[in-house]
Amino acid sequence: MIPALPSSVLACATCMADKGSLVGQAQGLAILFMLGMLAFMFICAACFVYSFVRRQRAHEHLTTA
User: Fold this and answer.
1) Are 24 and 18 contacting, i.e. CB atoms less than 8 angstroms apart?
2) CB 64 within 8 A of CB 54
3) How far apart are CA 36 and CA 29, in angstroms?
4) pLDDT in single tens digits along all 65 residues of the chain
């Protein structure tokens, strides 16, 4: 077994494009887009749960009065 040196662990040009190239910029923007979509989905799920909580509290208020 040959120990891996830190220089051999670096990503290749396919995974890590040049920072100034259009491919590198597109990869960075694609990652930001995917993170934005993930945040949007979490916010939608939280709003969905919050609406159920709000409806449940309104229903409890009507039944106890």
Assistant:
1) yes
2) no
3) 10
4) 456 566 555 656 556 667 778 888 888 899 999 999 999 999 999 999 999 999 999 998 888 76
Predicted TM-score (pTM) of the model is: 0.62
User: Measured at the alpha carbon of residue 38, what is the angle toward residues 29 and 57, in degrees to the nearest 5?
Assistant: 150
Q: Find out whether 45 and 37 touch, Cβ atoms under 8 Å.
A: no
Angle at 47 between CA 59 and CA 58, to 5 degrees: 10
Q: Please state, in angstroms and as integers, the Cα–Cα distance from residue 12 to each residue in 15, 24, 31, following that order.
A: 6, 13, 18
* Rounded Cα–Cα distance for residues 56 and 48 (Å): 13
The rounded distance, in Å, linking the Cα atoms of 52 and 6 is 51
